[in-house]
Amino acid sequence: MSTQVDYYELLECERTADATTLKSSYRKLAMKYHPDKNAGCKNSESKFKAVSEAYEVLRDPQKRAAYDRYGHAAFANGGGGGGAQDFGGFSDIFESVFGEFMGGARGGGGRQQQRRGADLRYDMEISLEEAYHGKSTEVTIDVSAQCDTCDGSGARPGTRAKTCQQCNGHGKVRAQQGFFVVERACPVCQGTGEMIADPCPDCRGDGRVDKTKTLSVNVPPGVDEGTRIRLASEGEAGPRGAPAGDLYIFLHVKRHAIFEREGTTLFARAPLSFTTASLGGSIAIPGLDGETHDIKIPAGIQSGKQLRQRGAGMPVLQGRGHGDLVIQVDVETPTKLSLRQKELLEMFRETETGDECPASQGFFAKLKGVFAGE
What is one Gene Ontology biological process annotated in the Swiss-Prot or TrEMBL record (predicted)? Predict the structure, then answer.
């Protein structure tokens, strides 16, 4: 196809088309005419070259401005346009546009990014009191750390790594797979672009050695079951000086003898004598904050009733204030009575009218009505 055909016509775009429109149109046409999809068709190959040539000019703002002003004459006599490029050049343009569909195949030609070290996990058990107040502690872990002898390079001190001959230092190798060009990490250097000719005697070229480390951990007030604390760069070191991973401390809160927790709310069950439940009063509950909380008991309280003490619960993690303390009352019926207590209760029963316990009175009245056919 003649290079004198208007580039905008070749790309089926208006002259006012923006860069996104030009790129989209080129993708569609390049996919349509690519030789791998039209094996042996000279016409398709010619069209593919033509649309690639057009896009190579129009994607560059300076070349496009020159073309808009002077047309094809702007690139006559080696003026920097298309026309004289070979098929490999057009393939490069194609790959630059379709790179995201091929896993970033070109990637700027640099070596593969260094492999970061692995993250590590450490499980720590704490008490509910420690979760309330927070704590500072230390943990000891066994980890692959940077080799001090070679400073993580993997090479014997006084020597240096050499460029990998397989990938010429790029860290990647390319392979044609049908319609696509695929890049993979170099199997010889594992993507580093370098080879260790004289490895460090301590780490044997890996840049890492096994060490035992003791680390300080700050547990903030208000943590809960499963809270995760991140210690940046305290995980395994990356190979040959690559960045280290992170260490994650996972917290597990031990079951408490009295309190149960739901978010920032603390729950406790308190048995209550039937006399206090009847007459009212107060009970003293020691809190996790070290204070004693007096819970007022209203007269006539029933089992299962919950009483709330504002601000006596768990602290808000990384915030202000506290949750609440909720006490659930369980009225206890006495099982061991002295003779005098029994006499007093008999005297009380003789004075009962039924109004003292309206729920019981209502139930038996309803029961009587059912069986009486009312």
Answer: response to heat
Binding-site residues for Zn(2+): 147, 150, 164, 167, 186, 189, 200, 203
Give the per-residue pLDDT at 237. 92
Burial class (CB in 10 A: 0-12, 13-18, 19+), 294: exposed
- CA dist 96 and 107 (Å) reads 9
Domain coordinates in residue numbering, the chain: 7-102, 120-253, 260-332, 339-371
CATH architecture of residue range(s) 120-253: Ribbon (2.10)
The residue type of 57 is V
Q: Which fold has domain 7-102?
A: Helix Hairpins (1.10.287)
For the segment(s) 260-332, the CATH number from 2.60.260.20, 2.40.100.10, 2.20.25.90, 3.60.20.40 is 2.60.260.20
Q: Does pTM top 0.85 for this prediction? A: no
Tokens of 124: 């720590």
What's the whole-number average pLDDT of the chain?
A: 84
Q: How many CB atoms lie within 10 A of CB 70?
A: 12
Dist CA 116 CA 240 (whole Å): 10
Binding site residue list: 147, 150, 164, 167, 186, 189, 200, 203
* 8 A C-beta contact, residue 240 and residue 206: yes
Query: What pLDDT, in 10s, does the model give residues 248-280?
Result: 999 999 999 999 999 999 999 999 999 999 999
Token pair listed for 13: 């775009």
